[in-house]
């Protein structure tokens, strides 16, 4: 990864104009497509397969009069007037008739219509006009809402002064979140933090440019997706909030590292390439964890949540790609102007330490002075938030959480005041009455049974459809739609199903917007445990692979869980208990959005791993390079604390800016994320982590050897890159060698076993041949063809440094096996002929002296001859020292017996492999001018006589 990103960063730096033009062109093209193909956002929360959703879908066919979108107009008479008296009664009847003539209105019901109950308040001051529209909210749009609002205003104008009326219901549901000037505060704070951290106006502007561009592309893609998928209106806001935060942070990490490298004397191009390789690797890893967690939201099985997760994941992916391409391009535009100024020196000539280093040095000292005490205080302190977190209540949004002053909020409050909270969330029970002989009588009896259920306020309608095969009962619960007691009412109503089946023979289902919302919330609650296991399990696995440690991932995961619990606890204190609610702009306390927990867990997981990676990777790097365990903690902390602090402050600013104003849908998510980032960055990662690492000492980096062998290696610290760059011109600039290696060694499996070989030096120019034998010859060929990493030594295959560029070598260097126990592994005649037609730069042939028949022997000889003539280097593994018949006549070669190289390097024999040996172990200088071959002899025995034996 680091090698690939190094080359990518260098290429982006050099071709900066092209890279910038591509990103701008991409935004323009996608914007044009969105303008042509975009649809509308749809906030119809659905849960396919649930009882409520299936019943709601069936009503569209069996009872179209009550399908579609419902709306209400609540009318409150002036103080002292009776809503049932004139002029109110006539005005409301005419109002209902006029509404019935509007476009998309299926029916409008006057509160005085026969058979309608419960739509006039007990004090006779308020009445409800129910309207049923033909179509979903997203299909109706603003014109329908505006028409209803205008008709309501006209009604009020015709009634006595003091009359109140407001439209509401599903049509005016909380369907979106909107930007305001307050969100810009987060960007301004981010810029100030960037300016302070980077110390350059030009550098501080770069993360904002890249983040805004990435968010713009992500938003355009989301808008474009509305033409093909059902997209919730909360989706773009979530993507915007997350895309801004990670986009700024990811660019900051790379720019900060690049300026540090420039301060160390590297050229602007080299600094950009190395920063992209090192910090870019961490960005890719961190971004990948966020993406996986967001896509993992699909485990809930809820379509709108899956779309939200995928959309946010795409925005994060764009931020990652921009960070590793456009950021180095912008560094190219800045060039030497971004080089930090030399720091002031003391009188004694030493460099004056930076203020942030002194501050963070004191922080680290306090955190690790008594590490056990620090750990106990943090775990107990954060653990206390688990007490309020247990009371977290979830629900889908309703009009009670709408912004004050809107029709939706005014209507909700008037209905609750004059009718009761349950009228804002009516339930519907459907019944299959096709077997009934008295549909009207049976529906009346069913209504009486339902009214006897605890928590049911009243039944306002119980009627069959026109074909008398389906009946509906409209039920008003005693409690608000987001009250947890309403959940119990729904459960009790569904519990009537067996009794109704026995008494009437009807199949029933409970549905309606409130029931669907309850089912969605229940499904989300059930998904939390498997999603939590997924996230925590992923955390442990990924961090174990990155840090090669058991304790580091366990500690990181515990810290993540503490951050999540604390965020939940703060949300309960603010949104349930009302703490600081006025400051936060929370108009109404109560349940929070149902998908908050799963979204918080997913996003915070990625951000927590981000901070963990930047802090602990520095500690590991220092430890690997010889620092003591305690010293490594301090070095890693001081090297990363400032950039982690800046990143966290930016995250908190961006998330926090969405809290004071706007819809309740996003408030709770933004607050939870802001609190979670604060706790995770400053309390967990920058305080708990160094304390735990100091407490563990050397044990922090322990990993069982068997696990070390089977786990893949992620070089996020860039060790492999530095190794690759260090050997770029080794053994000499523009090296002519096809293979060059010094001190190569490989251990045998099993503790205490002798190495397969050790102290082997190899140097092969074009056209040269190496014949190897001995126990480890096959393993040597695997290493030279990029298929097996060595335990010791330095090795280059052409210009590729091993093992970092083993993938390239493996793709270009076929491993030819002349004879194998498995026929599928044996190179057949067709492959041998094909390779002879176009030999690779390095030809590697295992078991070259073991062809199955004379024809195969001839083809092997022809292949080696063709490779030598083409200027390829050839490495052959044979079973016997004298089996050299496949080497062309008049071609000298070097012989290597690996059984002579199975001792430790300091006791291995001298000259061995390569033309005249190849380096220190051979005792002769490396290079094209080295002396001649150690053994150039060959025999003249006929090839056919050697099959099955050796000369």
From TrEMBL:
One Pfam family this sequence matches: MMPL
Q: Which InterPro entries match?
A: MMPL_dom, Mycobact_MmpL, SSD
Compartments where found: Cell membrane
Protein topology in the membrane = Multi-pass membrane protein
SSD domain: which residues?
Answer: 181-333
Source species of the chain: Brevibacterium pityocampae
Protein's name according to its UniProt entry = MMPL family transporter
**SUPFAM superfamilies per the UniProt record, alphabetical:** Multidrug efflux transporter AcrB transmembrane domain
Q: Which UniProt keywords apply?
A: Cell membrane, Membrane, Transmembrane, Transmembrane helix
**Location of region: Disordered:** 900-951
Major localisation: membrane
State which residue ranges cross the membrane.
20-38, 181-201, 208-231, 237-256, 282-304, 310-334, 366-387, 527-546, 558-575, 595-616, 637-658
Signal peptide start and end residues = none
Q: Where is the composition biased (Gly residues)?
A: 913-925
Annotated Low complexity bias:
926-936
């Amino acid at each position: 990864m680091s090698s690939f990103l190094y080359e990518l960063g260098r290429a982006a730096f050099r071709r900066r104009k092209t890279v910038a033009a591509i990103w701008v062109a991409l935004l323009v093209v996608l914007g044009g497509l969105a303008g042509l193909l975009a649809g509308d956002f749809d906030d119809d929360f659905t849960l396919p397969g649930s009882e409520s959703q299936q019943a709601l879908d069936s009503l569209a066919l069996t009872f179209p009069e009550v399908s579609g979108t419902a709306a209400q107009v609540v009318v409150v008479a002036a103080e002292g007037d009776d809503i049932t008296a004139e002029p109110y009664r006539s005005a409301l009847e005419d109002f209902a008739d006029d509404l019935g003539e509007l476009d998309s209105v299926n029916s409008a019901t006057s509160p005085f219509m026969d058979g309608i109950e419960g739509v006039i308040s007990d004090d006779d001051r308020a009445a409800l006009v129910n309207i049923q529209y033909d179509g979903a909210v997203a299909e109706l749009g603003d014109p329908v809402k505006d028409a209803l609002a205008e008709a309501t205003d006209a009604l009020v104008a015709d009634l006595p002064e003091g009359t109140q009326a407001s439209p509401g219901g599903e049509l005016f549901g909380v369907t979106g979140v909107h930007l305001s000037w307050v969100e810009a505060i987060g960007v301004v704070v981010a810029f100030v933090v960037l300016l302070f951290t980077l110390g350059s106006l030009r550098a501080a502007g770069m993360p904002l440019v890249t983040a805004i561009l990435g968010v713009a592309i992500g938003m355009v893609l989301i808008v474009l997706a509305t033409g093909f998928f059902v997209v919730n209106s909360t989706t773009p806001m979530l993507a915007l909030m997350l895309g801004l935060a990670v986009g700024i942070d990811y660019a900051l990490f790379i720019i900060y590292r690049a300026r540090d490298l420039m301060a160390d004397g590297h050229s602007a191009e080299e600094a950009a390439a190395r920063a992209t390789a090192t910090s870019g690797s961490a960005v890719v890893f961190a971004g990948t964890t966020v993406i996986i967690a967001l896509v993992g939201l699909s485990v809930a099985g809820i379509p709108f949540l899956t779309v939200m997760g995928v959309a946010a994941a795409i925005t994060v992916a764009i931020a990652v790609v921009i960070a590793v391409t456009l950021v180095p391009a912008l560094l190219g535009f800045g060039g030497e102007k971004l080089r930090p100024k030399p720091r002031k020196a003391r009188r004694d000539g030493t460099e004056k330490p930076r203020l942030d280093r002194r501050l963070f040095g004191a922080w680290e000292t306090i955190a690790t002075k008594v590490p056990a005490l620090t750990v106990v205080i943090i775990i107990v302190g954060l653990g206390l938030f688990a007490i309020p977190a247990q009371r977290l209540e979830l629900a889908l949004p309703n009009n009670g959480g709408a912004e004050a002053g809107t029709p939706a909020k005014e209507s909700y409050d008037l209905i609750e005041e004059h009718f009761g909270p349950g009228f804002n969330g009516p339930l519907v029970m459907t019944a299959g009455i096709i077997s009934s002989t008295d549909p009207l009588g049976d529906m009346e009896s069913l209504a009486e049974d339902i009214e006897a259920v605890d928590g049911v306020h009243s039944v306002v309608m119980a009627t069959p459809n026109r074909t008398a095969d389906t009946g509906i009962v409209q039920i008003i619960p005693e409690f608000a739609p987001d009250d947890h007691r309403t959940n119990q009412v729904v459960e009790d109503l569904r519990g009537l199903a067996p009794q109704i089946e026995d008494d009437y023979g009807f199949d029933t289902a409970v549905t309606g917007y409130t029931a669907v919302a309850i089912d969605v919330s229940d499904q989300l609650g059930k998904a939390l445990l498997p999603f939590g296991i997924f996230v925590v399990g992923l955390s442990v696995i990924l961090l174990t692979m990155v840090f090669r440690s058991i304790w580091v991932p366990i500690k990181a995961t515990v810290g993540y869980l503490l951050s999540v619990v604390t965020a939940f606890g703060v949300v309960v204190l603010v949104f349930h208990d009302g703490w600081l609610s006025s400051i936060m702009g929370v108009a109404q306390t109560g349940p929070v959005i149902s998908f908050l927990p799963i979204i918080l867990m997913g996003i915070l997981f990625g951000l927590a791993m981000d901070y963990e990676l930047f802090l602990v990777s520095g500690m590991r790097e220092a430890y690997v390079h010889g620092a003591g365990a305690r010293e490594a903690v301090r070095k890693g902390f001081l090297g990363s604390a400032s950039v982690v602090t800046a990143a966290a402050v930016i995250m908190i600013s961006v998330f926090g800016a969405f809290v004071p104003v706007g819809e309740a849908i996003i408030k709770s998510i933004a607050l939870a994320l802001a609190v979670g980032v604060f706790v995770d960055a400053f309390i967990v990662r920058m305080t708990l982590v160094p304390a735990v690492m100091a407490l563990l000492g050397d044990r922090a980096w322990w990993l069982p050897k068997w696990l070390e062998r089977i786990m893949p290696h992620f070089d996020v610290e860039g060790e492999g890159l530095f190794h690759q760059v260090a050997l770029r011109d080794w053994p000499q600039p523009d090296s002519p060698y096809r293979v060059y290696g010094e001190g190569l060694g490989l251990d045998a499996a099993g503790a205490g076993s002798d190495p397969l070989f050790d102290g082997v030096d190899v140097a092969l120019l074009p056209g040269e041949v190496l014949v190897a034998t001995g126990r480890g010859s096959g393993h040597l060929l695997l290493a030279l063809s990029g298929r097996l990493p060595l335990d010791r030594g330095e090795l280059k295959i052409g210009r590729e440094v091993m093992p970092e560029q083993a993938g390239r070598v493996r793709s270009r260097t076929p491993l030819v096996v002349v004879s194998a126990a498995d026929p599928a592994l044996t190179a057949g005649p067709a492959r041998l002929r094909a390779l002879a037609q176009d030999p690779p730069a390095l030809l590697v042939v295992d078991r070259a002296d073991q062809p199955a028949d004379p024809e195969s022997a001839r083809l092997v000889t022809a292949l080696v001859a063709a490779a030598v003539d083409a200027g390829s280097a050839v490495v052959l593994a044979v079973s016997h020292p004298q089996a050299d018949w496949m080497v062309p006549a008049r071609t000298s070669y070097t012989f290597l017996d690996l059984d002579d190289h199975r001792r430790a390097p300091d006791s291995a024999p001298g000259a061995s492999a390569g033309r005249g040996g190849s380096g220190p172990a051979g005792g002769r200088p490396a290079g094209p001018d080295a002396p001649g071959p150690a053994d150039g002899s060959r025999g003249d025995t006929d090839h056919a006589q050697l099959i099955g034996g050796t000369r």
